[in-house]
Amino acid sequence: xxxxxxxxxxxxxxxxxxxxxxxxxxxxxxxxxxxxxxxxxxxxxxxxxxxxxxxxxxxxxxxxxxxxxxxxxxxxxxxxxxxxxxxxxxxxxxxxxxxxxxxxxxxxxxxxxxxxxxxxxxxxxxxxxxxxxxxxxxxxxxxxxxxxxxxxxxxxxxxxxxxxxxxxxxxxxxxxxxxxxxxxxxxxxxxxxxxxxxxxxxxxxxxxxxxxxxxxxxxxxxxxxxxxxxxxxxxxxxxxxxxxxxxxxxxxxxxxxxxxxxxxxxxxxxxxxxxxxxxxxxxxxxxxxxxxxxxxxxxxxxxxxxxxxxxxxxxxxxxxxxxxxxxxxxxxxxxxxxxxxxxxxxxxxxxxxxxxxxx
Amino acid sequence: xxxxxxxxxxxxxxxxxxxxxxxxxxxxxxxxxxxxxxxxxxxxxxxxxxxxxxxxxxxxxxxxxxxxxxxxxxxxxxxxxxxxxxxxxxxxxxxxxxxxxxxxxxxxxxxxxxxxxxxxxxxxxxxxxxxxxxxxxxxxxxxxxxxxxxxxxxxxxxxxxxxxxxxxxxxxxxxxxxxxxxxxxxxxxxxxxxxxxxxxxxxxxxxxxxxxxxxxxxxxxxxxxxxxxxxxxxxxxxxxxxxxxxxxxxxxxxxxxxxxxxxxxxxxxxxxxxxxxxxxxxxxxxxxxxxxxxxxxxxxxxxxxxxxxxxxxxxxxxxxxxxxxxxxxxxxxxxxxxxxxxxxxxxxxxx
Lengths: 359, 351
Prior knowledge:
The structure is a homodimer. The first copy, chain A, has 10 helices and 9 strands. The first copy, chain A, has helices spanning 31-38, 68-75, 91-96, 122-131, 181-186, 219-222, 241-256, 275-298, 308-323, 329-347; strands at residues 18-24, 42-47, 62-66, 101-105, 109-111, 166-175, 199-201, 214-218, 259-269. In chain A, strands 1, 2, 3, 4, 5, 6, 7, 8 and 9 form a 9-stranded mixed beta sheet that branches. In chain A, strand 1, helix 1 (31-38) and strand 2 form a beta-alpha-beta unit. Residues 1-8 of chain A have low confidence and may be disordered. The interface between A and B is large, with 59 and 58 residues. Chain B: InterPro entries: Nucleotide-diphossugar_trans, RGP, RGP_fam.
């Protein structure tokens, strides 16, 4: 793993170690704007919706594309765990990737500018975030202590200054903020114009709403936990895919001593989704959330859950045991979580590393 | 809410300033501080006269005053250390406190505008905190922001804010080892955010630019035994912050950090600092796990009860590290006794 040097221009590209996963149902025109930043990388396009539609990928990009037929062919019956008619299908891309890192972005997200007017290389910032440690055990009031020009403050215990490996880098959005339907209905004109120049670790024991629009993660450290659930067609809920993955991921990261960062980089979110459609999708979630959050807040994983897969399967058991009574959906979801892990392990047979641990 | 409409709270807030030198820095703050009552806590030689710039309404206490007012209980108030500032919290009769160091000046935001730190602290204190779930757009109550998708609706009322912790441009608040290793580093990064420190998470609370709701959390703001005759210094605000956070978490109160920035002009001497912090560097390693594991009983329903219970645990669990902690635990109790004496409980709810 290449070390990060002081100057921005020497952040490693990681071009052979990172895949960009993009779910789409329309087109990939947005890639033109990202070309200077994305062209070195391999793309995994997950085409949702009608598989007979041809998705045009701009020239010059190296990519693999999967539509529903491909997903069904590759996973067979296990394809049932991959959502249809919902961007949650993107997690199929995580599963088939062979790279160490994933960056995922929505097709309505464009390059943003920082307050000086300079275009933001979101991918480079995610890489910086992922390659430097997180600090989940104690809050640093100057935010990311590993950033240029910052450090740990007085009173920060020295034994905690090594930090822990970073599993997830959660980026933010200028312009259209990621609001739920009620908020969109009440404040249709609100735009996020505030650039907050910080990256910070979300403390251990604290949950957060993980948005999948602008997200990087270390697939080797946390990949199997990034299951985006059962959404869309035939499902009673939508727009909770990334939320679900985020709560599972956070609980598992806390258990395994891994870090999650949030903040920079910003992208420019151009499209406000239809709040009436969103309300229909989110409706059940608004109520279910009230039970889900206490569930995740009180989840504990036993000591013998030493891999992400084991943690995830244990979580699936607890989902079935404790949330099954909230709605039948959670029984299905728990089963799908297991199917996901089985499919993941099939597509990613574990290798035993020199130190005896499995990958 | 624009600044001119921000509640001044001029009859509800005291500004507490510890000083050993002079108060020249107040000239720069005059436009922002003049409406408020100041409580000056004069550290060091009481025979020295500290000149307060004209036009400020203030009360000043030197060591003789502290000894006179508290009698034997004055032993809990540090001498030759800015920790003595907490005496100011105790004698105040106001609902809110803002405390600032005498080497902290008015900073400018990226647009070049002077920052009214006090008005930002007031904003922070008057709107709720959200310690139970992290909002990725930071303070949801700020103009132009809100709770994001996935934030549970039942948690959107927030909880009352007890503490507003501001930051510093220019000389950052580093410990001695960091100062020795990076003497040139300056904080140039303006982070335009206020956020709640989540429940269950400790933080290093710096007393240089700090505000709090005295009614909600005052008795927990004890800055410990530092300075003259003590084996440690520069851990006063840290100690108070760890106690405060544990108690806030227990009582369902919020602690915010971020804006406002002040301009910190003076880098203290790192060699002197290392001497002061030396024991703390090692003790910290035991203190942090102690606070992380501290639980308070259901019967501790007031800040005073929480602080007294905490002091018992300090004696029991930290006493074995060094006798200092036995003394400190006793001083924590003395502090509460002194607080209650100077602030007799009223029937208007819990204090």
